[in-house]
């Protein structure tokens, strides 16, 4: 069909290049779709400058409550542990309350540094609120907005 050098070049231009371009377009479309999904969600709690969506909060509460129900803890501070609410937050449910880290990386907490932010849940596993050490004096908490 074509000479050897020009045939190879033509093969690349007509066969391989379109396949590469199609793959790039497909990958770009997936990335745009993921960004669009994340942008559609809204902040349920903002702790310092970190925006947590409902799915982030649900995952942290579910993980903390599952550990609590199993009688297990993680990390050197033994999370989840009882939250005594010395600050006097007005949570919707009844005490006892438990705190569990919610990480600004949006990864599940499995030990290590707990960061500044926490979800609070009650004995029934119901989400009560989000709190943070960011902006609080000492080892106190302030409520996330």
TrEMBL record:
<dbReference type="GO" id="GO:0003723">
    <property type="term" value="F:RNA binding"/>
</dbReference>
<keyword id="KW-0456">Lyase</keyword>
<keyword id="KW-0732">Signal</keyword>
<keyword id="KW-0378">Hydrolase</keyword>
<keyword id="KW-0255">Endonuclease</keyword>
<dbReference type="InterPro" id="IPR048269">
    <property type="entry name" value="RNase_U2"/>
</dbReference>
<keyword id="KW-0472">Membrane</keyword>
<dbReference type="GO" id="GO:0016787">
    <property type="term" value="F:hydrolase activity"/>
</dbReference>
<comment type="similarity">
    <text>Belongs to the ribonuclease N1/T1 family.</text>
</comment>
<dbReference type="InterPro" id="IPR016191">
    <property type="entry name" value="Ribonuclease/ribotoxin"/>
</dbReference>
<keyword id="KW-1015">Disulfide bond</keyword>
<keyword id="KW-0540">Nuclease</keyword>
<dbReference type="Pfam" id="PF00545">
    <property type="entry name" value="Ribonuclease"/>
</dbReference>
<dbReference type="GO" id="GO:0046589">
    <property type="term" value="F:ribonuclease T1 activity"/>
</dbReference>
<dbReference type="InterPro" id="IPR000026">
    <property type="entry name" value="N1-like"/>
</dbReference>
<keyword id="KW-0812">Transmembrane</keyword>
<protein>
    <recommendedName>
        <fullName>ribonuclease T1</fullName>
        <ecNumber>4.6.1.24</ecNumber>
    </recommendedName>
</protein>
<keyword id="KW-1133">Transmembrane helix</keyword>
<feature type="transmembrane region" description="Helical">
    <location>
        <begin position="12"/>
        <end position="32"/>
    </location>
</feature>
